[in-house]
Fold this sequence. Notes:
Layout: H1 3-10, H2 18-31, H3 37-43, E1 49-54, H4 59-76, E2 79-84, E3 103-106, H5 114-123, E4 127-130, E5 140-143, H6 146-159, E6 165-169, H7 175-190, E7 200-202, H8 207-218, E8 226-229, H9 232-244, E9 254-256, H10 262-266, E10 273-275, H11 278-289, E11 300-302, E12 306-308
Parallel strand pairs: 1-2, 1-3, 3-4, 4-5, 5-11, 6-7, 6-8, 8-9
Antiparallel strand pairs: 10-12
Helix pairs in contact: 4-11, 6-7, 8-9
Amino acid sequence: xxxxxxxxxxxxxxxxxxxxxxxxxxxxxxxxxxxxxxxxxxxxxxxxxxxxxxxxxxxxxxxxxxxxxxxxxxxxxxxxxxxxxxxxxxxxxxxxxxxxxxxxxxxxxxxxxxxxxxxxxxxxxxxxxxxxxxxxxxxxxxxxxxxxxxxxxxxxxxxxxxxxxxxxxxxxxxxxxxxxxxxxxxxxxxxxxxxxxxxxxxxxxxxxxxxxxxxxxxxxxxxxxxxxxxxxxxxxxxxxxxxxxxxxxxxxxxxxxxxxxxxxxxxxxxxxxxxxxxxxxxxxxxxxxxxxxxxxxxxxxxxxxxxxxxxxxxxxxx
Length: 318
C-alpha cells in the first residue's frame, strides 16, 4: 500500500476503495495515530491555520471569542491557535521567523497595536479586526455599535427614574471602552443630567478592578442609585460590593453590565446587560478571513445588539 493511499485515507479524501480504507483506519487505531494539524500545515501549499491574538482580561469574553472561531473553523476545515499577547508583538510565537498562517484575527485592544499591524502587513498575512476604530488595510472588520448600546442602557436606567448614575469605564487604551463611555456621557447629556465626578471610576474589565471601582462609587457622599459597568465581570463585582455593604439589588441599587457573557445569567440576581454578539462576531470574522463572502474586502460589518433586562434593575425607590 502506497504512502499516498494512506495519506488520502487519513485526510478523508475520496477515491479509495472501502476495504483499503478500513485496513488503514484499523492500523491507525492500533498504532494510536493522531493527526498533527501543524505538520499538515507545513506540508500544505497553503496554510490552513489561523491565529487569534487577544489580551482581554475577561475570561468570559475571551471564551466566547474562542467558541465562535473554533465553530467556524471546524465547518471550514481550518485549525486555530490562540495567543495571549499581553507583552505585545514579542510575545507572539506564531509571528516569529517566517510565519505560516492563513490569517490572523485581532481582538481589542490589540486591534490598535501598531507594531502587530505593521508586522502582519510586512509578512503579507491577511487579518481581520474585531471592533477597530478605523480601517488599517485589513481584509474587513466586524463590530457592534458600542456607543449606541451604552446610550441605550443609560436611557433605560433614566427611564426607571435614576438620576444619580455611576459608571465604571474600561481601560482608556481599549477602543470599545472609550466608545461605551462616550455613549454613556452623551445619553446623560440628552437627558439634561450632570455626571458627578465622584460617580465615575475606571477599571480594566477584570473583576478585581470592578471591586475597587464599586467601593469608590458607593463611598461617595451622595452614592449613585444605579451603576452601569462597562462589562459583566465588573458588574458582577458591583453586586459583590453591594452585598458586603448590605445593599439590596435592585431595591437599593440597580446594576447593569455589558456583553451578556454566560456569567450574566448565572449571577444571583441575574444581571441586566447589553447583549453583544461575541460568538457571532468571531465566527463572522473567521468567515471573512477565509474568504467566505460575509463582507466585501475592506468592508465593515456591524452586528445587532440588544438590552437584556433581568433582575438587577428596577425603578428608583422613592
